[in-house]
Structure formats: structure tokens, C-alpha cells
Amino acid sequence: QKKRRAATARRQHLKSAMLQLAVTEIEKEQAAKEVEKQNYLAEHCPPLSLPGSMQELQELCKKLHAKIESVDEERYDTEVKLQKTNKELEDLSQKLFDLRGKFKRPPLRRVRMSADAMLRALLGSKHKVCMDLRANLKQVKKEDTEKEKDLRDVGDWRKNIEEKSGMEGRKKMFEAGE
Question: What does the sequence similarity comment in the record state about its family (predicted)?
Fold first, then answer.
């Protein structure tokens, strides 16, 4: 048990040390990102100095609008390039599937179609024969035997309720009660 306790204590100590290292690494990464962001902003966005006169302010606004338009054009161009490359990637992946011989199965829909309609769709105008599948079936006559008739007659209790013994009296009692 002492060995187990020592092993678990060592394991917990190692875990805590790793967690402390991870926390310090994360903090370093965040500080580096912040410094990188500040450098980028200082390089690409010079500090704004507002002029005092109205005409200079208008000129500054025109310059800012021109920059915004140029950035918008660049953004649009990059979006179009991205769409083109995505389309090319899809086409190339489809060609790759075709070359490999592995095809994606399209989702199939269930279509209700009679045999005649199916033959007409497959053969076109050549199909003139009407397929009646029930026409070639044998006609089978059902013979009513006396036993079946008796069973049918006895089975329907509504028809012969008065014929059963004892029921007639009960029926009269029921009618008298109403």
C-alpha cells in the first residue's frame, strides 16, 4: 500500500506541475499575441490626427473613403478567388472519385409506377402490350360444404337468438322491463 500511495502522490505532483507549466505557456502565448496585435496596428493604422479646419477634415474623410473602397474591392476579389478555388477543388475531387470507381450513391426516391408505365418508360413507343398480371391466373371455385353452412349459421347469434333454449323467456322479460 505504501508503494501505491507513493505512486499516486508522485502522479498527482506531476499533474500539478504539468498544469502549472501549461498555465504559464498559455499566458506567454496571450502576451505574444497582444504584442503582435499592437505591432500590426501600429504598422498598418497610423495614429489619427484630426485637423482643425473644415476643408482638411473633408479631405481626410475622402481619403478614408478611398481606403475603405480599396479594402472592400480587395475583400471582394479574395472572396471570388476563394469561391473559384472551392469549385475547382470540388471538381477535382469528383474526377478523383470517377477515376477510382467509387461513386457516391444519390438518395433514391420511391416512385409508384405500374408495370405498364415502367415498360412504357423503358421501351418508349415500342411498348404496346398491356400487362394484366391477373388475367393468366386460374379460376378456383369455392365449394360450400354443409358443415361450413352450419357453422356459419350457428356462428351468427343475432339471427337465431330466439331459437336458443331459454333465451326467449329472457327476451320477453327484457321487453317487459322497458
Answer: Belongs to the troponin I family.
Let me know whether 31 and 76 are in one domain: no
Task: Give the residue numbers spanning the domain of 87.
Answer: 50-104
d(CA 15, CA 21): 10
Q: What is the spatial distance between Cα 129 and Cα 60, in angstroms, rounded to a whole number?
A: 84
Backbone angles phi, psi at 112, to 5 degrees: -90, 120
Q: How far apart are CA 88 and CA 32, in angstroms?
A: 37
Mean pLDDT (the chain) is 79
At 90-125, the pLDDT tens digits run 999 888 877 877 666 778 777 777 777 777 777 776
Could you give the CA distance from residue 56 to residue 50 in angstroms, rounded to a whole number?
A: 9
Task: Tell me how many domains the chain contains.
Answer: 2
Cell of 152: 356459419
The answer as to whether 169 is a domain residue is no
Taking the CA atoms of 80, 81, 84 and 85 in sequence, report the sign of the dihedral they define: negative
> Is 73 part of a structural domain of the chain?
yes
The reply to whether 113 falls in a domain is no
